[in-house]
Amino acid sequence: MEYTFPVTRTTSPKEKPDVNALGFGKYYTDHMFIMEYDEGQGWHDGRIVPYGPLTIDPAAGTLHYAQMSFEGMKAYKNPNGGINLFRPDMNAKRMKNSNDRLCIPQIDEDLFVAAVKAIVKEDADWAPDAPGTSLYIRPFIISPEPSMAVHPASRYWFIIILTPVAAYYEGNDKELHGSRIWVEENYIRAAVGGTGFAKCGGNYSCGMIASEKAKEQGCEEVLWLDAKEHRYVEEVGTSNAFFKIGDTVYTSSLTGSILPGVTRDSTLQLLRKWGVKTEEKRLLIEDVLEAADNGSLTEAWATGTACVISPIGLLKYKNMLYGMQTGIREPEMDGWVITL
Ligand code: COI
Questions:
Q1: Does 219 lie in the same domain as 142?
Q2: Which of 26, 45, 82, 222 would suit a FRET pair with 313, their CA atoms being 20 to 30 Å apart?
């Protein structure tokens, strides 16, 4: 099905930011996409409007009970001056799974991708082209419906905003240094049966306390362990974690508490294509640390749309530092790039 969306253009376009000082999420483009949902009517009135504040009832359920979902994706300037999107169908599918978990109505995958393409095309001149930069795309769903009772809303907004960004971890602007990661033993990110596999705000707000603790420990991010035994490796901060031990690359299996990252899936597919042995399993932190001790842990890294592929240099566990070497490869991405 073909989708077209009416466009109301801004009458006061903003000045573009300096590409050398983009940071992450500091600047927003001239327009945004918005579409409404009403029970009985479904999703309707998708349109592009000037970027600007929302007027929302202070009693809106989203503000109190966090019924919301979101996605993170990137658009890149290609060498011909066009724009590439990376596997947007994966984000459309994941948002469906998140919505199911949070009792939010589904958005048809083709409609999701059409809306992303439309807003990115509209603000394509905001896509930066300096190395390591991109146009970060943030689709999200909230409900403007006032309600103090805890139940799924009957009205929603689907909004897409765009922000030109540089590296999520500032150090990666300069060189791919390995970050220090704090292994968190007390706080947890998600438990099986909860919302760990969904992309929703609550998964991130509950993690902030451990990220702050990691910083106090001189680390940049936190390595989450499982909620039940606090022994199995889950994720790194806002991203998935990979460990190369011996000749095999390990990452946590999708147990229900792990976010199924698009970069995680792409990494596994590329490694397999290159003939590297991979295993998705529940990995014990003791085994990772022992591998660091005996030298068989040679590489570790985090994968995510925002943080791309960020090498891990050191793990800090109970005041002990465990180091490893780091390395990078150039990815091949046949069939994953959609040129607008
Ligand atoms: C992403 O990688 O796109 C994310 O959603 C992480 C974000 C919370 C910065």
A1: no
A2: 26
